[in-house]
Design brief:
240 residues, 2 domains
């Protein structure tokens, strides 16, 4: 018995003096201590991990050990609008509420035959009126102002006696996108604050006193004078 104890102590001492890798290969009895078996399995797994990492080249090891950078989401400015058919046609189909529908209808019935730039210009006039204290403060209100009263319609199509029926689907899809872009905050830089327009085919009296801001397509655009009370304005100032 005494000799057996000495041999057991020597075995333990030898095991302790081994390197971690060597100790991992020494199987010890775990009948009385489950923790020893757990340590053994853990060491074995760690040794496999060390061996695997040892086979990797330095560059790959660095990539694996580097944490990915946290994405930073920054608010970006909206893309600049391009006044071209190609740009508009590539945009997704537009939709919206009452303001969008009113603006899209106005562009369809008033300017669908105009260039894309001309359609944006008409939209600017409508939204400039919404912002003006001299007109209703909503898109639908501006477009329908005077509708139902003789010679008081602000937009011809609302009082021409014809039902507003969309027959040209392609033209509708384009003006709908223009309306969506304008309501979403596209810059109003084409008409320089214009609140009026008329076609080149007419020459209203008020046009001689209103400052003309630009001409786009078949329309002349005008800004309301500073002293509007001194100017005689036609009941339909942008008659087409």
């Amino acid at each position: 018995m005494r000799l057996y104890g000495v041999l057991w102590a020597a075995c333990l001492a030898a095991t302790v003096s081994l390197s971690p890798a060597a100790r991992a290969d020494v199987v010890l009895s775990t009948s009385n201590d489950p923790g020893i078996e757990l340590d053994y399995r853990l060491n074995k797994l760690l040794n496999k991990e060390r061996t695997a990492f040892g086979r990797l080249d330095a560059a790959r090891l660095e990539r694996l050990s580097t944490l990915p950078e946290t994405k930073r989401f920054t608010k970006t400015e909206p893309a600049k609008v391009k006044y071209s058919v190609g740009y508009i046609d590539n945009l997704p189909r537009a939709s919206g509420g009452d303001a969008w529908k009113c603006l899209a209808e106005a562009l369809y019935f008033e300017a669908r035959g105009e260039s894309v730039k001309g359609q944006f210009a008409v939209a600017e006039v409508i939204l400039n009126r919404v912002d003006s204290v001299h007109y209703p403060d909503s898109v639908c209100g501006v477009i329908r102002q005077g509708t139902g009263r003789k010679f008081a319609c602000q937009f011809t199509y609302t009082c021409d006696g014809h039902a507003e029926v969309v027959h040209e689907k392609k033209a509708w899809n384009r003006v709908a996108k223009v309306a969506r872009l304008m309501l979403d905050g596209a810059a109003r830089t084409l008409t320089k604050g214009a609140t009026h327009y008329h076609t080149k085919a007419v020459n209203p009296r008020w046009a001689k006193k209103f400052p003309r801001t630009t001409t786009i397509g078949v329309h002349h655009f005008y800004r309301m004078p500073t002293r509007v009370s001194s100017v005689e304005v036609s009941p339909v100032p942008w008659l087409q």
